[in-house]
Amino acid sequence: MSDILRTYPDSILKIRAREVKDFRGVGELTERMLKVMLLNNGIGLAANQIGVSSQVFVIKLEEEDESIRIVNPVIVEASGEDGLEEGCLSVPNTYVEIIRSGSLLIRGFDPDGREVEHKLEGLKARVAQHEMDHLNGIMIVDYLPKREKLRFMIEYEELMKEGKTISESKKGDARDL
Fold this sequence. Notes:
Elements: H1 26-39, E1 44-46, E2 56-59, E3 68-79, E4 82-88, E5 91-100, E6 103-109, E7 115-121, H2 122-135, H3 146-161, H4 166-169
């Protein structure tokens, strides 16, 4: 496991993360994830964003908020729709309008393996869906219309030829999930 944030097109970001069956070390994993997320000014992070193929994500919107740590998450209920531009720590300075449910009921486990249920609204619901996309190998660029995605990929290829990455050419901001 690494404290290095994985960025597009790292292959671990494109595959479905594995279900957690052994909870030993999951608490430490979520602590490391929160550290990486906060160091990068994020508000959510999936385990595969630091190179760990495990169904785990963390959310922390505000400094005074308690963090949400969910293992093997499943959306039980979803309602309402809301469109908003999203960014992503793994695809710096790329923003995509995505329609998501405004309210969720998620079941899963805490880092100690105890069953938990979270009712999430608004931004927390959006962040949870964004992180669950990561756990399923879906990135925000996958929501781009075909032409825009092609343009993104061409820009990325040009940066690679120059020996740069997207993160070196652009700085993220607090909208990055």
